[in-house]
């Protein structure tokens, strides 16, 4: 009888002993949301990979965490269908007449091939040396949670209130073009009412100890060239077959590619500063049951190229080059360009954000990085395309930045991971950045130079 009475007490003492002497990780399952790493891992465990991203679960996770931060408000917006929510978080500033700051992150990620991974890509496994493995660890669930962690820290630890309102948008569909995500958002009445003055969007990891920052994207063109000619027997030599004409064009294009690539190899330009041209498909031949007819020269052939232009390139010049040299009509060729993104903003200016003193936001951003103890690499053009183009089109200064240094670039790769120490450092960096940007009163431009 007496033993039964004492059991609860003994258990309590035992549990206390356990909690004092065993590593806290053993208790993590009892307290999922207790620290930044467990919150990050829980976000990573939500599968938002295409083609079936679970946006609702991601929005719930972020909304629940935001609700723990005093004064922060959340709102879920729908611009297309109910299964494509956009989460907007508002941290009200004390002077709502000043243009606001927008921090952006996309909810979705690219698909995975789980068999090629060391760990389940949605388990957020942590290795002994602190690497958190998950799809989205770098691209870009890290920044999505770091924004909130930084705001929570500024509010709860420092009781800081921003001067300018800070918004965070969590958008769907970035990885499939962003048209139903940020694309729709920027056209909405809700967006115009925010009065955004400056935007931070995702960047990329850096393998050195300098952070990378991006002031422009390259714009992809899908180029398909076609050649038509008279068909002929495989044994006959004759001029101007479709295949021959296409190959002539390919030669010209590959010379152009080589020239651009040589600039990179000579150190005159970064990879993303030149026009890249890469062949991605050839469609030719007359099918037969065993493959292709070998004695038949086809009358129609086609090739596809991924062409990418930096905003410094002249799109009209490029179009002329394609028309006159790559797929000339006199060589019986046609072409089709599908522009996957703009190269100019709505005012006709190159689609890029100034990274010099003409842009006061740049100066503040740069100083905030320095104040956090970090170093910035030379600003770059992102080799691929992001949602940032939608903001830059409106003429809103937008920088791409993900604070991950000394980290291999693993976006879209197997075994994408981020180290816990790098993640924590990122939160600190954002504390500096968000504080500096949101307290910028517009009058201190001179001082910041
Ligand atoms: C273009 O097609 C016409 C008609 O088939 C042909 O006579 C001519 O030789 C072709 N020219 C070239 C350059 O392929
Ligand atoms: C700043 O950069 C922009 C864009 O690259 C350029 O057009 C402008 O002339 C530069 N201004 C100054 C003051 O250097
Ligand atoms: Zn991304």
UniProtKB/TrEMBL annotation:
Zn(2+) 1 binds at residues 106, 139, 202. GO terms for molecular function: aminoacylase activity; metal ion binding. InterPro entries: Aminoacylase-1_M20A, Bact_exopeptidase_dim_dom, N-acyl_aa_amidohydrolase, Peptidase_M20. Residues 1-28 form the signal peptide. Its cofactor is Zn(2+). Keywords: Metal-binding, Signal, Zinc. Zn(2+) 2 binds at residues 139, 175, 412. Pfam families: Peptidase_M20 (PF01546). One of its GO terms (cellular component) is cytoplasm. NCBIfam families: Ac-peptdase-euk. This is Aminoacylase-1. The lineage of its organism: Eukaryota, Viridiplantae, Streptophyta, Embryophyta, Tracheophyta.
């Amino acid at each position: 009888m007496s033993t039964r009475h004492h059991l609860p007490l003994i258990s309590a003492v035992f549990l206390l002993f356990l909690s004092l002497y065993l590593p806290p990780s053993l208790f993590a399952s009892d307290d999922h949301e207790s620290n930044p790493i467990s919150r990050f891992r829980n976000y990573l465990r939500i599968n938002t990979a295409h083609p079936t991203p679970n946006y609702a679960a991601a929005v719930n996770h972020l909304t629940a965490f935001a609700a723990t931060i005093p004064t922060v408000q959340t709102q879920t917006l729908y611009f297309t269908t109910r299964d494509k929510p956009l989460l907007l978080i508002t941290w009200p500033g004390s002077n709502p007449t000043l243009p606001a700051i927008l921090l952006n992150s996309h909810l979705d990620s690219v698909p995975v091939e789980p068999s090629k991974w060391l760990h389940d890509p949605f388990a957020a496994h942590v290795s002994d040396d602190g690497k958190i493995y998950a799809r989205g660890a770098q691209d870009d669930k890290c920044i999505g949670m770091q924004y909130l962690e930084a705001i929570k820290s500024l509010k709860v630890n420092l009781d800081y209130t921003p001067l300018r309102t800070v918004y965070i948008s969590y958008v769907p569909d970035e990885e499939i073009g962003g048209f139903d995500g940020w694309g729709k958002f920027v056209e909405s009445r809700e967006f115009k009412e925010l009065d955004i003055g400056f935007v931070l969007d995702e960047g990329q990891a850096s393998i050195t100890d300098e952070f990378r920052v991006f002031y422009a994207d390259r714009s992809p063109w899908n180029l398909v060239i076609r050649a038509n000619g008279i068909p002929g027997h495989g044994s006959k030599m004759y001029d101007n077959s479709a295949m021959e004409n296409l190959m002539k064009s390919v030669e010209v294009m590959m010379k152009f590619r080589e020239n651009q690539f040589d600039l990179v190899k000579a150190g005159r330009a970064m990879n993303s500063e030149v026009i890249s041209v890469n062949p991605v498909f050839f469609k030719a031949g007359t099918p037969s049951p065993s493959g292709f007819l070998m004695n038949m020269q086809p009358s129609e052939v086609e090739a596809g190229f991924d062409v990418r232009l930096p905003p410094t390139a002249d799109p009209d010049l490029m179009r002329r080059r394609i028309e006159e040299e790559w797929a000339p009509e006199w060589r019986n060729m046609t072409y089709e360009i599908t522009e996957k993104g703009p190269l100019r903003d709505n005012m006709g200016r190159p689609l890029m954000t100034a990274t010099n003193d003409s842009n006061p936001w740049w100066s503040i951003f740069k100083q905030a990085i320095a104040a956090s103890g970090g170093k910035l690499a030379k600003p770059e053009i992102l080799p691929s395309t992001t949602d940032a183009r939608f903001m830059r089109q409106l003429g809103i200064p937008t920088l791409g930045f993900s604070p991950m240094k000394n980290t291999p670039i693993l976006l879209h790769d197997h075994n994408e991971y981020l180290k816990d120490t790098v993640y924590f450092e990122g939160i600190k960096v954002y504390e500096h950045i968000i504080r500096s940007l949101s307290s910028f009163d517009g009058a201190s431009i001179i001082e910041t130079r």
